[in-house]
Specification:
With about 100 residues, the protein is mostly helical. The protein has 3 helices and no strands. The chain has a domain of about 45 residues. Keywords: Membrane, Transmembrane, Transmembrane helix.
Length: about 100
């Protein structure tokens, strides 16, 4: 019974070492350190920096809004005026009628 248990543990260890590329000892640890360091600087650190920068922007925006609650904030784009003169009123198109 004990030998079956030891064989199972040995098979699991063999499976894990083979899945790591078959390296044993120092080279295996060194390769994992290099891979972990690269992963940190290529993926984890930029994601954390971006998140921290976004939080700082939100905090700055909240602080400015709290300091002046009555300031004007444009919430939508202005609607362009379709008239030729650019005026909202008074476009009679007199120039075109007199030329004809």
């Amino acid at each position: 019974m004990a030998s079956g248990w030891r064989r199972t543990v040995g098979n699991v260890q063999s499976l894990i070492s083979n899945s790591m590329g078959g390296l044993r000892g120092g080279p295996n640890i060194a390769s994992w350190v290099v891979a972990g360091t690269l992963a940190y600087y290529l993926w984890v650190k930029p994601a954390r920096d971006l998140k921290r920068e976004q939080e700082e922007r939100i905090a700055i925006a909240a602080a400015t809004a709290a300091s002046d609650p009555y300031r004007y904030v444009e919430k939508r784009k202005p609607i362009p005026d379709p008239q030729e003169t650019g005026l909202i009123y008074g476009n009679k198109n007199n120039l075109k009628k007199t030329e004809d």
